């Protein structure tokens, strides 16, 4: 564990208080917050950013209650009781006035999301008041490297975030070597690059559903794709494959596709196919919100997880599906090979015929009864501890 007192920022969690399911970054911030709160309560103080341009300390009991409420709600895929949003509002108000206090001991400001990294001046002032160094997690540089997959304003905002990292951070953790290389390449022209450590995310797998999921699982062989519906995830490839199969095969023998994830941005073509393509009706199923238990059960009983993304910083669905022992077909990306090795089947994300052949082969040959014991991946407490230990080591080196 870290030797310095930790000021952990949970601004992103406050902003997501009304959401029924977490994104990947939401889960990362929550798991680190829970780990610190449970195992090192005396060393962590939670803080948050207020839009007035101030970062302040949060009341501990209310914060712990808020974290427990989010955990319960997101496990069940239910929107948190409206009290969670009220509680988030109270905590945000507290951040506007919460003094960081005077201390002779240097502290560490831990920011694990990209939430307000573009606010360099605000963060710099806070570091000065709090007598703290900055440790951050950079999840990816996709908006900079692949601006075509981001909202129009996001590339510039992400450059501002990475510039803050380059100017202020003392330690950076990233989820993959691929992200580390991207960050070093981006910061190289500035002449200043903080210490960067690679720590994979933890694996969160729920037990099999205690209740039947027949209302969600198709009564036919099916495949699952898991993640926000956006162009970068390449849902369009799969929808075109299923449309092609629906026009060239007996529909009664077709596999189904289960899409799990909320609708994101810049996805008009995908939504049009989901809502208006007659060939896909009845064989493609969309579920925006499902509990962790139900998602795990849907994935566990699928023929395979499909993950045809064009770019990823990590790939939590891949890790979690492999831990359940199901086959995975994914894009041939360096980050996937880094975290999963030779376990998945790899395909070019533009190779539609190749994906279709693999899908039909897995449909014809059911391997569910022949699967070997799934590999063991590190859980979240283990990886949160590893991340904090990594920061601690970089912090000691920086101090020396």
UniProtKB/TrEMBL annotation:
Record-annotated Glycosyl transferase family domain positions: 214-342
Annotated SUPFAM superfamilies: UDP-Glycosyltransferase/glycogen phosphorylase (SSF53756)
Biological process, per Gene Ontology: lipopolysaccharide biosynthetic process
Lineage: Bacteria, Pseudomonadati, Pseudomonadota, Alphaproteobacteria, Acetobacterales
Protein name: Glycosyltransferase family 4 protein
Keywords, comma-separated and alphabetical: Transferase
Origin: domain of life: Bacteria
GO molecular function: glycosyltransferase activity
Species of origin: Gluconacetobacter azotocaptans
CDD domains, sorted: GT4_MtfB-like (cd03809)
């Amino acid at each position: 564990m870290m030797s310095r007192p930790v000021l952990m920022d949970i601004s992103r969690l406050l902003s997501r208080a009304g959401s029924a399911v977490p994104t990947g970054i939401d889960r990362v911030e929550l798991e680190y917050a829970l780990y610190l709160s449970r195992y090192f309560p005396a060393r962590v103080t939670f803080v948050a950013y207020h839009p007035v341009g101030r970062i302040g300390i949060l009341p501990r009991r209310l914060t712990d209650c808020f974290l427990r409420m989010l955990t319960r709600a997101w496990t069940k895929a239910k929107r948190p009781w409206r009290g969670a949003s009220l509680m988030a509002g109270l905590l945000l108000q507290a951040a506007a006035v919460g003094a960081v206090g005077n201390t002779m001991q240097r502290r560490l400001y831990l920011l694990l999301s990209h939430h307000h990294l573009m606010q360099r001046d605000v963060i710099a002032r806070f570091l000065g008041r709090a007598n703290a160094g900055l440790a951050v997690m950079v999840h990816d540089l996709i908006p900079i490297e692949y601006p075509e997959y981001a909202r129009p304003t996001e590339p510039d905002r992400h450059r501002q975030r990475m510039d803050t990292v380059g100017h202020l951070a003392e330690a950076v953790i990233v989820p993959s070597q691929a992200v580390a290389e991207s960050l070093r390449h981006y910061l190289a022209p500035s002449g200043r690059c903080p210490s960067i450590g690679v720590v994979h995310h933890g694996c969160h797998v729920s037990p099999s559903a205690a209740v039947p999921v027949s209302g969600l699982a198709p009564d036919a062989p099916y495949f699952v794709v898991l993640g926000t519906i956006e162009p970068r995830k390449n849902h369009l490839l799969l929808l075109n494959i299923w449309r092609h199969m629906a026009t060239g095969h007996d529909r009664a023998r077709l596999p189904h596709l289960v899409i799990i994830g909320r609708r994101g941005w810049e996805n008009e073509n995908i939504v049009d196919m989901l809502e208006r393509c007659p060939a896909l009706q009845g064989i493609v199923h969309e579920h925006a919100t499902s509990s962790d238990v139900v998602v795990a059960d849907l994935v566990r009983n699928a023929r395979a997880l499909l993950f045809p993304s064009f770019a990823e910083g990590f790939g939590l669905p891949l890790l979690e599906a492999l831990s359940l022992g199901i086959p995975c077909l994914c894009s041939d990306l360096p980050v996937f090979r880094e975290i999963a090795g030779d376990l998945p089947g790899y395909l070019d994300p533009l190779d539609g015929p190749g994906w279709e052949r693999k899908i039909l082969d897995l449909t014809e040959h059911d391997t569910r009864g022949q699967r070997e014991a799934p590999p063991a991946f590190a859980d979240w407490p283990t990886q949160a501890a590893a991340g904090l230990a990594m920061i601690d080591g970089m912090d000691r080196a920086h101090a020396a």
